[in-house]
Automatic annotation (TrEMBL):
It comes from the Eukaryota. It is found in: Nucleus. Pfam families: TFIID-18kDa (PF02269). It comes from Daphnia galeata. One of its GO terms (biological process) is regulation of transcription by RNA polymerase II. This is Uncharacterized protein.
Length: 357
């Protein structure tokens, strides 16, 4: 039987071959396929080198979701919001590293140490005290790692006086500030003359949330609250995430510097959540203060109100990307003005708009 044979080319064009018998059709197919392969190879463009593994996006999204819950967000924060927070955090940390490199270059230092962090924090006494409190806690952890005999030979006063990192930090603050104001404010062993409004509001928000939890929920929350960028993570993950898409650092960072940088990353996530909740509070206040809505909002008389009922609900609305974006927009466009929560203390160098400072 003789029938026409069609070959469909890669370009979608049908070619009709001369009438062939069934025995010769495979030969014709083979010849045409060979020629088509040569044509396609000559016309092929080099494939783009696209690899999902080359990007570090999403490496810490799950950890950031847990941190956001620890700072007052709902139990399951939105993935896209955590992804946005991760992108903002990485940009902030890269700028923070550049600021540290500038300080090290001006001081002719060969590596990044505690002094560079202290120098950048000198314009923010509240955050400077938080950092010194972190150094104090690290000293307690180092003491806990010592053997039992060494711990028995020390008392609490010896622990305080033997905290080398904290003592060197206070000595450096006294060196750059002869008035001893920074040293007196930053010393965590003395009462603070300043009020940390942001930390106080964060603690109140967490208190309202945890008061509505049972034991199992609180244990789960406590596990989320203890999430870190370094603790429990593979070795080098934080460094790879931060530096994979960036040039090689000009100065060396030892293990202590990376631990301190992870602390500032944790604090940056906390401040992003704090500012996002301020945006939500302003939006809710604007809605209630409207003349029409103010008269339509259902009111509960104090006699009918259950004062023992927790004000926090498990069905709280998670933070939205729009709230985080608005918070960062306000922060970047607010200088030392009346907008205290979004104000950047001091006068940082141009271009250094860092949440950590």
């Amino acid at each position: 039987m003789i029938r026409p044979t069609y070959v469909v080319l890669t370009f979608g064009v049908g070619v009709k071959l001369p009438n062939q018998t069934n025995t010769k059709t495979p030969v014709v197919y083979a010849i045409i396929n060979l020629k088509l392969n040569r044509i396609v190879k000559n016309c092929e463009m080099p494939a783009a080198d696209i690899s999902d593994n080359s990007s570090t996006n999403g490496w810490f999204v799950l950890e950031i979701q847990k941190m956001m819950h620890g700072f007052g967000d709902c139990k399951q924060p939105l993935y896209e919001t955590a992804e946005l927070v991760e992108n903002i955090l990485k940009e902030q940390l890269i700028q923070f590293l550049n600021a540290l490199f500038e300080v090290a270059a001006k001081s002719n230092s060969k590596k990044i140490g505690i002094k560079e962090f202290l120098f950048l924090l000198r314009h923010s006494p509240v955050k400077l005290r938080r950092f010194c409190k972190y150094l104090q806690v690290r000293g307690f952890k180092d003491y806990a790692k010592e053997d039992e005999f060494t711990r028995d030979m020390k008392d609490f006063c010896d622990i305080q006086s033997g905290n080398k990192k904290l003592n060197s930090a206070l000595a450096f603050l006294q060196q750059i500030d002869p008035s001893c104001y920074l040293c007196s404010v930053a010393d965590p062993t003395k009462p603070s003359p300043l009020i940390d409004d942001a930390l106080k509001e964060r603690q109140e928000r967490i208190e309202r949330m945890t008061s509505a939890m049972d034991v199992s929920q609180y244990l789960e929350y406590n596990k989320a609250k203890s999430t870190s960028f370094k603790r429990g993570q593979p070795a080098g993950k934080f460094q790879d995430w931060l530096l994979k898409d960036s040039p090689t650092p000009e100065f060396a960072l030892n293990a202590t510097a990376w631990s301190i940088l992870s602390y500032f990353a944790y604090e940056t996530v906390a401040q992003i959540v704090d500012l996002a909740f301020i945006v939500r509070r302003d939006n809710m206040a604007g809605q209630v203060s409207d003349a029409v809505q103010r008269n339509t909002v259902p009111r509960v008389s104090p006699a009918n109100a259950d004062l023992l009922k927790p004000t926090w609900s498990n069905s709280i609305k998670p933070l939205q990307t729009s709230e985080v974006t608005e918070a960062i927009r306000r922060f970047n466009n607010t200088h030392n003005s009346i907008f205290v929560p979004f104000r950047r203390n001091g006068v940082p160098p141009p271009g250094h708009r860092l949440l950590a400072l």
